[in-house]
C-alpha cells in the first residue's frame, strides 16, 4: 500500500517537473488528454456562463408546452471539430442563429480561464463558423520553432502566441518598420532575418550607424554595407539610381500589344524573363534615428538627402525588387520633416518592448489602439517579444527565437557564395579577410613516415 502511494507521489512529482521544464513534452504526453476531457465536460456550462448560448427554438417550446414536459434549456454553439495541435487545441464551432463572431472574440479571456487554457484566440473562418485556437501552455516562454516552409523572400522569423509560425513575406509586405526600446530585441530580430535570407537568392544591403557592430560580422553575405551617415547617403543614392535602371529594363520589356498574352505583361521584376530579372535587394537599416540627426548645416543637408532617398525607395522600390526594413528606438515626427511620410510607406509594423505610449503609437497609433495597448504590456524580462501588425488593423503577439551572433555569422559564411556583386554598389562592398581554410594542418615533419 505504502509502496503504491510512494509510486503515485513520485509519478505526480515527475509529471509536474516535466510540465515546468518541458511544457511541450508535457502537453503531448498528458496535457492534450486532460484538456480535451476538460473542454468537453465543461463545454455547456462554460458557454452558458460566458453568454454564448441562445434560447431554445420556438417549436421545442411549443412541443414542451403541448406535452406538458420541462421547458428545454438554452442552446450552445454546435461543436464541429476538436483538433489537438502541438501546442494546444482548435475548437471549430457552428454559431447559432443570432450569434456574432465578435461575441466569441469578446469572451476569449473568459473562455481561457474557464477551460483552464493558457490563451484563446477566436476568428471567423467562414460565415457562421468560428474557430477557437487555444494554447495549452506559454509557447513564448521558451521559443521552439516548428518546421516551417520557406518561399521566395518569405522567411519564418518568429513564433506567434497561438503556436503558429510568423513569417516575414517581402513580396506581400515589401517594407517594414521595427521599433523598440534599447535591449528589446530589435537587432536579434534583424539578425534572424539575415540568417534566414542568407540562403535565398537575394542581395543584402546594410546600413548600421553603430559603426557596423551588428551587421559588419555578417559582411560576407552583404553586397554593400555602410557604417556611417556619409557612406549611407552615397549608398542610398546608388540604390535609387539602380532602381531607375531597373525601371528602364522593365519598360523596355513591356511591349504590350494585342498578341502578347496577359501573363507576359509585367510592371515589376517578377514578370521579367529569368535571364533579365535583376536580383531583389533587401535593405536593412539599424538605428534609423542616427541617419536623421544633425548638428551642423552640412549634416542637415546630408540628412535631407538620406530621408528623401529612403522615401523614394519605400515609395517606388517594390516593383524594382528593393525592399526596406527599418529598425529604430523611436521613429516619430520629432526626427524632422519627411519621417512621418516615410513611416506611412512602411506597411509592416513590428513593435518590441517600448518605454512609453508615444513610442508604441509611432508603430500602431494610426493602425490599431489595441495593438498600442498590447505593446505597452510587453514585459521587460521577455526580450524578443513583439507585437506584429500590418496596416489592415490586425495584430499578433510574437517572439523571435534567440539567434546568437555566432549562429548568424555561420549562416552568412555558409552562404557567402550566394552574395551577388552589384556593379552600382561596388564601392560599398565590404572588404574582407579570406576565410580561414577548413583543411587540417599538414603533419609535422618529425612524425612523417620515412620515405621508402
Ligand atoms: N528573442 C530573444 N530571445 C531571448 N533573448 C533575446 C531575444 N532577443 C534579444 N534577446 C536578449 O536581449 C539582448 C538585447 O537584444 P538586442 O541587441 O536585439 O536589443 P536591441 O533592441 O537591438 O537594443 P539596442 O537598441 O540597444 O541595439 C540580447 O543580447 C539578448 O541577450
Ligand atoms: Mg540593436
From TrEMBL:
Q: Which domain of life is it from?
A: Bacteria
Which annotated residues bind ATP? 180-187
- The FtsK domain sits at 162-361
Q: Which Pfam families match?
A: FtsK_SpoIIIE (PF01580)
Which Gene3D superfamilies does this entry report, sorted A to Z? P-loop containing nucleotide triphosphate hydrolases
The keyword ATP-binding is annotated on this UniProt entry: yes
Q: Which UniProt keywords apply?
A: ATP-binding, Nucleotide-binding
Membrane-traversing stretches:
none
Q: Name the PANTHER family on file.
A: DNA TRANSLOCASE FTSK, SPORULATION PROTEIN RELATED
Protein name listed in UniProt: Plasmid transfer protein
- Originating species: Streptomyces lycii
